[in-house]
Amino acid sequence: MQTPDAIDRLFVPRGEERPRPPLILAPMAGVTDLPFRSLARRFGADWTVSEMISSQAMIRHVPKCAKLALADEGDAPLTVQIAGADPAAMAEAARMQAGLGVRVIDINMGCPVKKIVSTGAGAALLRNETLAARVMESVARAVSIPVTVKIRLGWDAATRNGIAIARLAEASGMRCITVHGRTRAQMYEGQADWEAVAEIKSRLRIPVIGNGDVRSPEQALELWRCSGVDGIMIGRAALGRPWIFREIAHYLTTGRHLAPPTLEERAALIEAHYHVMLEHHGPRTGHLLGRKHVSWFTRGLPGGAALRESLNRTPTPEAVTPLLRAFFEPLLQARAA
Ligand SMILES: Cc1cc2nc3c(=O)[nH]c(=O)nc-3n(C[C@H](O)[C@H](O)[C@H](O)COP(=O)(O)O)c2cc1C
Q1: Which domain holds residue 297?
Q2: Are residues 202 and 310 in the same domain?
Q3: What distance in angstroms lies between residue 184's CA and the mean position of ligand 1's atoms?
Q4: 239 lines ligand 1 (CB under 6 A)
Q5: The whole model's pTM is what?
Q6: Is residue 1 pLDDT above 70, yes or no?
Q7: Do residues 227 and 331 share a domain?
Q8: Are 131 and 125 a contacting pair, CB within 8 Å?
Q9: Out of 65, 111, 176, 226, which one is annotated catalytic?
């Protein structure tokens, strides 16, 4: 028997009891860098995926690509998502990543943005089943590490071919498939269709990960119950709330809610994360990306909107720690009183 690889280890074999499905941080461009993936891991994410990286940029050795695929030991198995529509370039990019120690390659077939779909990549591949199959086969043949794919339900309401694409994925050697329960035309609007995700799950033998609009432990349980998916992927709900993974894990295994971090913990966490962003990306980019996280972390807190306004007017990092402390101090005092 072959030694289990990264994908085997994530999913329990068919028929075996499992306490809960693995919880996965969704790939998000401009968000799921190493600092945020590490944070999600710390709070219970079982798997993370790099943000989408263009296969063409990767094979041209654009320096930014290497940073997007960076990982540390806590972020294993390192999974890099590649995007593109040229089977040979996708294979080459996958080979390069495997050579660099990446453990799983994920193919992007869901990105809805114009810049990507106009090149035939991302969700545009859903409209061209022949090319989609060639891309998947070409990547799967190029590397010995597992290859997975992330799709949407189809291009638009009139062409919901998610089941056909999922079957092609299985036949092309994909080891697991993530289904975001929306069409490309929906972008991020409307409600994710979990019944359609369930339908795809029921037709495949490979593990199926359900994705779209899971924002609470109860919703995670509902998606799991209604579809029997093998994994649950969470994106936007983890922004400013990376502890959602441990909250869901606790709820799925005990049926009880876990208390969220205290205000002190949140204050310390966001300050530390902002500084990790500066270290990782350098002061300029680190500041720009780091303040997005500050905004997410302070959503819903009294005075959060004013803090976000001040942050947006702050061009350099020096003022950020004093701003954060001035924001949290009165809140902490009010809690203590
Ligand atoms: C800011 C942002 C960036 C995203 N970037 C990617 C990406 O690079 N690759 C990808 O497959 N999906 C990407 N997505 C889609 C998410 O992975 C996920 O499928 C979607 O947000 C639905 O899940 P959610 O409702 O839990 O957020 C992105 C989503 C957002 C909000």
Answers
A1: 263-336
A2: no
A3: 12
A4: no
A5: 0.97
A6: no
A7: no
A8: yes
A9: 111
